[in-house]
Amino acid sequence: MNTKRWLVVAALILALLAGLALYGDIASVQDQFTRFNWWILGPALGLATLNFLLRFAKWEVFLRVLGHKPGTKASALVFFSGLAMSVTPGKLGEVLKAWLLKRSCGVPLADTVPVVVAERLTDLISVVLLASFGAASFSYGLDLLVAALALCSAVVALTLWTRAFRAVVEFFSKIPAVGRRKQSLLDLQHAMVKLVGPAPLAIGSLLGIVAWAAECLAFHIILHAVGVQASLQQSFFIYAMGTLAGALAMLPGGLLATEASMVAMLVEVLAVAQPAQAVTAVFLVRLTTLWWAVAVGSVALALQRRTTPVALDEVVKEK
Hints:
- The protein contains 16 helices and no strands.
- It is mostly helical.
- 43% of the residues are buried.
């Protein structure tokens, strides 16, 4: 693995921690942590785990749409192993899942990669729908929602419009890295067409809405635990918009973009929290969602390595 990539992640984490601490005032943030009832993290972790399980159910649905039934245990190990890579650069976690499913279950990359793309697409649609319930009421974030919807629409349209898809592939095949994978990219479209059909797209988006709503609820619980009396609509809106900002920023795990947008909405936009409260709540919700995902994924990856040796350098080369 390229050391420079990991240094970028480390730098983002350090910048994030320093920025949050300074913005919220270190002494005030320490006071918030001292007075926090830590048992509250139990329900928050439970809701985050529900998110993972519902997204795994969506993963299974998409695999079955393409006619693959690798077995629940094998499939679960692959899916949850991908969570370990949530903060890695270059979306390595997504590549890892496709690669592991090929190595451990024999599912070809031409089918596994489209499943990963469909997962991200329906996640984006779900978060946009959750955020839209508050965007009109709070008159904030409409431009971001429009951009996300435009991206989702473009992916679906390009998938279904074969001629346009082939034209795009032909255009970018002038780039050596794309040219070498030209036929593979054309093959991917056949599987993607099945996954963006009305039924799979609707089921995937519905599962995604419930999954991400669970994490929004975890945020709501944590906000009230630090003394922020935000309404359920405000909590859902802030968490969904922050998640969306992190996804569109294309940074590892949405680091910086997610946290900064959540804190800004709590303090500046909706004005429902003091800086120290906002920083504490955002830190804790990311601990119980993003970093909990990394922890769960690391356990799954360790179990996966017993049956399928995982060399991340090899995954990157195959990427």
